[in-house]
């Protein structure tokens, strides 16, 4: 053996000539490794396959002309993009390759961006500079930035687009959930443009909770909020019976009486004469626009702006309900609920109606002994530990700062900083979704409570969180599309005070501030006639036959109505045109007749609107039978010319009318002066 | 003897350490068999590429007399990228199996298959069709929900009452492939942009070309094509096969 080796050594390196020769051969072989590796590389294999594919097609010549061999690269230094994906994904821009079965060569689906301007990894993630499939896509456990699974792809859009986009319903939904479930009470989220995500779930203050409800109800509620109301956004803290007993003891012990105190129930007007009076007052006041309630058939009916009222009689004390129905601002100055001007009888009627809506099962099994000082002390510790004051105002407890980890860059969190547990996929999306789905699975001592989300909601929230990347923070500001932020607009003077008291902004948007449940009133003063406005405020009629949500009747005094009407007619005017620039007296009967024909034939307005209750049925848009009493001619004319200019986002199509057509149609519409919808329905 | 033992232990440890995935679940032990498998719900949904369908797929196994069979094994399968939770299960007491479906990453139509075995072990299959929307079709779907459904969808919900019955000429629902598949993309774009009169049809279809952008209208057309039933087959160039 040893001799053989020695002979071999002698053969190759025995003398200097042999040694030189052998060394040269070895060197040549080594030099050949790199070109050989290049020749047999994976991407060449894909390019050959691609050429084979396109040569079989009718437009082979065009496709071959577009083909460029070798490594391809999209390089965008200012976005830190060096993407070689198009080395293998060769058909990205070829519309004729939309139908090929191989994903690698298929045309990229239509999107509003050019690949050359944004690259690939900006949205899809992965390793752009890699030239092998494994390294570029890297679904392996080691690589920090694998491709983003398609179900979260809208996270790519969300890095730049902070606004709601038509094409990203899941991102929009996820962002909405983060806001409406109040995630940012505990977690700070600072977006790329420096703005902070603010919650809009409005958790109630607990400072006077003992005035509102009982300790038994609080106990049952914190044990399982969704057992009381399926739509409740409060999460479940999985408190033990003893812990819930102590937390409820502390919260009730901290409660102080309201100032001025609640009035005792009015004994003299206790029972309404008509037992159905409560139901009809609830209906007339359009409480269901905001509040849901289970009806006799077990169906949930109503909106989700305010809390569900199915079991309100079990929850709220009668004295509190009476106070709240009378004026909600007394208990909660920041409430979204308007101050209805109910008279004493109405307050009693509505209180009685709500008191009768009970769910006795909810607290049937709760039996609490009076709290001991030790229990209250323990309850306080639990309240502090669980961060209850992050959301609720509690006497004697300060709102904790940075109670939970900041999430501003969660979408770029390195995997080695995360702790995974059994059953959670080893990837960033897997971790985020796992945390949202079941936070306590990551450790029983973790404080994050259990929210109740559907699998789709979890995916949507994960999408929105994955959009919070380093790239979103560091990219040039010119890349960013800002979200529409609410302004701080507040109306001035007496009218302003009245509008705040009536909570107009819960539903209506004015000058960029307010809700989107009802029409934008920014230019209402240009649009409508004063007389109509005062009539409407006195007794709101149904303008849109197909809507459930309607303007409630607030029982305003004439003085209040005048204050409101004066203010709106004076202040809420568009600068674009004068409301008196077109007068009805300028129209002649021929124009009215021509307008009628345009309405019914050329523009077929009756498809969506009612001009005449006898013949027309369309009910997408508002009924127009009383246009001449409601609107100003100039507004109607400008609306017909370009509806979106007056109210962005309205679904009334711009029909591109000529000036003459718009003028005739205005003449016809202004000639419609029949009563309101309800009046017509009665006939 | 000793080195062999050590080697075996080391090899076992190594294998245990290297295997990442847990063991495959044991095959289902069905306790009954039916003669037919039918869809209870969850078919013909319009979902989004790569995402969970809104509703799970529910199938039912029946016996020859048409009554439900409990304890029959049902296996789901589909094109690559489709995942089922669970992928296989025994039918419950009402003879049904429910599975949540995540569609593949490509937009298009997906044929899902649910299999069961009859008493002789013969395979019985059921095909369930689903649609996955891509980006452009998603834009179309959103615009459809905002601008079109009120007239083009006969279904009414409490929050969205259909206006179809109020129109003297009934609009075509977008799923109506029999009619809409015969119209070219150019015709659809024309009628959406310029209204019914562009194709000598009713002016009750208003022009949207001054309200929606060209790319919005293209998105609507791609949505209409995506949801057509029967499916829309793109015309245009026919390529020679090699």
Please give a handful of descriptors for the protein shown:
heterodimer; A: 683 residues; mainly alpha; Immunoglobulin-like; 6 domains; two-stranded antiparallel sheet; 33 helices; flat; disordered C terminus; B: 242 residues; alpha+beta; Cytochrome Bc1 Complex, Chain D, domain 2; 2 domains; 5-stranded mixed β-sheet; 4-stranded antiparallel β-sheet; 5 helices; 9 strands
Describe this structure as you would to a colleague:
The complex is a heterodimer of chains A (683) and B (242). With 683 residues, chain A is mostly helical. Chain A folds into six domains: 2-35; 42-147, no CATH class; 169-200 and 404-479, Cupredoxins -  blue copper proteins (Immunoglobulin-like); 209-364, Cytochrome c-like domain (Cytochrome Bc1 Complex, Chain D, domain 2), CATH 1.10.760.10; 493-571, Cytochrome Bc1 Complex, Chain D, domain 2, CATH 1.10.760; 584-682, Orthogonal Bundle (Cytochrome Bc1 Complex, Chain D, domain 2), CATH 1.10.760. Chain A is built from 33 helices and six strands. Chain A has helices at residues 2-13, 16-39, 42-55, 60-66, 115-118, 121-124, 133-137, 154-158, 169-180, 209-212, 215-223, 225-228, 241-254, 277-284, 312-315, 318-326, 344-355, 361-364, 373-385, 428-437, 455-466, 470-474, 493-501, 504-507, 524-527, 530-538, 558-571, 589-602, 627-630, 633-641, 643-646, 659-670, 677-682, and strands at residues 74-76, 81-83, 292-294, 300-302, 509-510, 513-514. Chain A has a two-stranded antiparallel sheet. Chain A has a two-stranded antiparallel sheet with strand order 3-4. In chain A, helix 14 (277-284) crosses helix 17, helix 26 crosses helix 27 (558-571) and helix 28 packs across helix 32. The longest helix of chain A is centred in the first third of the chain and has 24 residues, at 16-39. By secondary structure, chain B is of the alpha+beta class. Chain B folds into two domains: 36-133, Immunoglobulins (Immunoglobulin-like); 135-227, Cytochrome c-like domain (Cytochrome Bc1 Complex, Chain D, domain 2, Orthogonal Bundle), CATH 1.10.760. Chain B is 26% helix and 22% strand. Chain B has five helices and nine strands. Chain B has helices at residues 2-18, 135-152, 177-180, 185-194, 214-227; strands spanning 36-41, 46-48, 57-62, 73-77, 83-85, 88-90, 96-102, 108-117, 123-133. In chain B, the strands form two sheets. Chain B has a five-stranded mixed sheet with strand order 2-9-8-4-6. A four-stranded antiparallel sheet of chain B has the order 1-3-7-5, with no helix packed on it. In chain B, helix 2 (135-152) packs across helix 5 (214-227). Chain B is elongated. The N and C termini of chain B lie far apart (64 Å).
């Amino acid at each position: 053996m040893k001799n053989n080796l020695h002979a071999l050594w002698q053969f190759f390196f025995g003398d200097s000539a042999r040694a030189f020769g052998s060394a040269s051969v070895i060197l040549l072989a080594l030099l050949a490794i790199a070109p050989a590796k290049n020749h047999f590389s994976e991407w060449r294999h894909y390019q050959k396959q691609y050429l084979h594919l396109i040569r079989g097609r009718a437009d082979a010549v065009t496709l071959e002309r577009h083909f460029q061999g070798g490594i391809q690269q999209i390089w965008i230094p200012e976005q830190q993009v060096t993407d070689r994906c198009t080395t293998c994904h060769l058909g990205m821009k070829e519309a004729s390759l939309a139908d090929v079965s191989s994903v690698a060569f298929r045309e990229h689906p239509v999107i509003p961006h050019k690949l050359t301007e944004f690259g690939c990894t900006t949205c899809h993630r992965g390793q752009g500079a890699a030239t092998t499939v494994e390294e570029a896509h890297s679904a392996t456990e080691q690589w920090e930035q694998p491709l983003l699974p398609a179900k979260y792809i809208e996270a790519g859009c969300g890095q730049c687009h902070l606004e709601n986009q038509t094409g990203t319903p899941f991102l929009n939904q996820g962002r909405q959930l983060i806001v409406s479930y109040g995630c940012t009470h505990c977690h700070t989220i600072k977006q790329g443009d420096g703005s902070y995500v603010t919650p809009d779930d409005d958790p109630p203050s607990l400072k006077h909770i003992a005035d509102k409800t009982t300790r038994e109800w609080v106990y049952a509620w914190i044990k399982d909020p969704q057992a009381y109301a399926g739509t409740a956004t409060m999460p479940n803290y999985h408190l033990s019976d003893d812990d819930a007993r102590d937390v409820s003891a502390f919260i009730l012990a901290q409660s102080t009486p309201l100032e001025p105190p609640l009035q005792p129930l009015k004994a003299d007007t206790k029972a309404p004469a008509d037992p159905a009076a409560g139901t009809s007052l609830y209906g007339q006041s359009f409480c269901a626009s905001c509040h849901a309630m289970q009806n006799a058939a077990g169906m949930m009916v109503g909106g989700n702006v305010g809390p569900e009222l199915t079991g309100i009689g079990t929850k709220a004390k009668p004295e509190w309900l009476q106070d709240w129905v009378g004026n909600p601002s007394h208990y909660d100055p920041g409430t979204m609920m308007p101050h209805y001007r109910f008279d004493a009888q109405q307050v009693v009627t509505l209180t009685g109606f709500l008191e009768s809506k009970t769910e006795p099962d909810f607290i049937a099994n709760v039996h609490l002994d009076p709290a001991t000082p030790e229990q209250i002390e323990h309850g306080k510790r639990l309240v502090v530990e669980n961060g209850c004051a992050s959301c609720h105002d509690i006497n004697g407890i300060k709102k904790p700062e940075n109670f939970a980890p900041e999430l501003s860059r969660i979408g770029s969190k390195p995997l080695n900083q995360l702790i995974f547990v059994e059953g959670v996929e080893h990837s960033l999306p897997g971790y985020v979704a796992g945390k949202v789905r079941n936070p306590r699975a990551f450790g029983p001592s973790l404080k994050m409570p259990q929210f109740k989300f559907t699998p789709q909601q979890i995916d949507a929230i994960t999408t929105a969180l994955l959009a919070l990347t380093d790239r979103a923070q560091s990219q040039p500001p010119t890349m960013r599309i800002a979200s529409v932020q609410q302004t701080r607009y507040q109306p001035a003077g007496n009218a302003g005070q009245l509008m705040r008291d009536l909570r107009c902004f819960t539903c209506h948007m004015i000058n960029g501030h307010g809700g989107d449940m009802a029409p934008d009133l920014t230019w209402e003063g240009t649009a409508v006639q004063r007389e109509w406005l005062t009539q409407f405020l006195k007794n709101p009629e149904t303008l849109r036959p197909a809507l459930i949500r309607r303007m409630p009747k607030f029982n305003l005094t004439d003085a209040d109505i005048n204050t409101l009407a004066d203010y709106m007619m004076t202040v809420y005017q568009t600068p674009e045109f004068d409301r008196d620039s077109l007068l009805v007296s300028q129209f002649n009967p021929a124009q009215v007749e021509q307008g009628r024909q345009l309405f019914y034939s050329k523009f077929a307005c009756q498809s969506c609107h009612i001009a005449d209750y006898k013949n027309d049925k369309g009910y997408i848009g508002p009924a127009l039978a009383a246009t001449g009493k409601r609107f100003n001619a100039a507004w109607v004319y400008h609306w017909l010319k370009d509806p979106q200019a007056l109210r962005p986002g309205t679904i009334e199509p711009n029909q591109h009318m000529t000036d003459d057509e718009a003028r005739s149609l205005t003449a016809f519409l202004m000639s419609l002066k029949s009563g309101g919808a309800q009046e017509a329905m009665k006939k | 003897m000793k080195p062999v033992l050590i080697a075996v232990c080391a090899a076992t440890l190594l294998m245990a350490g290297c295997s990442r995935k847990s063991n495959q679940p044991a095959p289902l032990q069905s306790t009954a068999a039916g003669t037919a498998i039918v869809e209870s719900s969850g078919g013909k949904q319009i979902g989004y590429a790569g995402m969970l369908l809104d509703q799970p797929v529910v199938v039912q196994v029946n016996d020859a007399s048409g009554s439900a069979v409990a304890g029959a094994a049902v296996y789901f399968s589909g094109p690559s990228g489709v995942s089922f939770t669970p992928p296989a299960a025994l039918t419950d007491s009402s003879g049904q199996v429910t599975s949540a479906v995540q569609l593949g990453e490509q937009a298009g139509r997906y044929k899902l298959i649910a299999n069961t075995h009859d008493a002789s072990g013969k395979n019985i299959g059921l095909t369930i069709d689903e649609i996955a929307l891509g980006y452009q079709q998603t834009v179309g779907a959103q615009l459809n929900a905002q601008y079109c459904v009120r007239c083009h969808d006969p279904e009414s919900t409490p929050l969205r009452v259909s206006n179809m019955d109020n129109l003297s000429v009934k609009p075509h629902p977008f799923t109506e492939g029999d009619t809409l598949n015969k119209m070219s993309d150019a015709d659809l774009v024309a009628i959406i942009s310029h209204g019914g009169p562009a194709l000598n049809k009713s002016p009750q279809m208003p022009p949207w070309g001054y309200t929606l952008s060209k790319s919005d209208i293209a998105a609507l057309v791609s949505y209409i094509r995506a949801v057509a039933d029967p499916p829309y087959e793109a015309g245009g160039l026919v390529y020679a096969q090699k």
